[in-house]
Amino acid sequence: MERMKAQHARPLVLICSDNADFYVLLSHILVREGFQTILVGDDDVFEQASVKEVTAIILDSAREPSITLTACAAIKGTDATSHIPTIALVSAGDERHYLNLLKAGIDENFVRPVSPARLLAYLSSLVQSGANRPRPAGENPTPTVGFGALKLDEGRRTVSYGDREIQLGPIEFKLLRRLFESPGRVFSRLELIEAAWPPNIYVQARTVDVHVGRLRRSLQRLTGLALIRTVRAAGYAINI
Questions:
Q1: d(C-alpha 168, C-alpha 83), whole Å
Q2: From edge to edge, which strands make up the β-sheet containing 144-147?
Q3: Cβ-contact 38, 27 below 8 angstroms
């Protein structure tokens, strides 16, 4: 019984791929490090993500790029699944697909062949943040932090403004939290990378720009205000 409970508590990762051999290899690596995995297809990834407690979704992009883009857009375009961290495994040199995935809402890209250590470090950071972990009964909710009219809930990874609320992806939430540490101060892209991405992961400046752009649009939809300011050649600041 204890073993079953321990297995049930393992973080769940959905792997969306049509390559069974790839799934077996990746699943072996993840299970050995304490995760559980489920192989899903493009036709059922959304359904599985909607009904299970999912730590992350891995999209295998070694296929027709449009399939992965469609799956990513569906996951990120629905309230029931938009909060789930989504990772794409992309082919080296396919920069256009890489950027299209970022625009579609992907939270992280890893270039194939994937370094298991880097992927595990990223997944472990998601588990440690506890963003998708249900709270035990009786546990006090994570306190919200107020910044002007905005409030951040660390545990739920939400931002509220008045009676409206949105949930951000893990990268966008960390970026916002960093910008809120010193409203008005300009943070360099390097500072934002250090705040939002796990260590030892190479992140391009353009990747930061795409994520900040997504964050800016989310906040503007929530508040009706342009809160994030771009300072050319320097970085970004938030005005509250």
A1: 6
A2: 144-147, 150-153, 158-161, 164-167
A3: no
pLDDT tens-digit series, residues 151-172 = 888 777 788 888 888 888 888 8
pTM of the model: 0.64
Phi then psi dihedrals of residue 154, to 5 deg? -60, -45
Burial profile 128-159: b = 16 or more Cβ within 10 angstroms, e = fewer: ebebbeeeeeeeeeeeeeebeebbbbbbbbbb
For residues 220 and 226, give the distance between their C-alpha atoms in angstroms, rounded to a whole number: 6
Angstrom distances, CA of residue 216 to CA of 151, 176, 219: 16, 9, 5
Q: Can you give the three-state secondary structure of 96-135, one letter per residue?
A: HHHHHHHHHCCCEEEEECCCHHHHHHHHHHHHHHCCCCCC
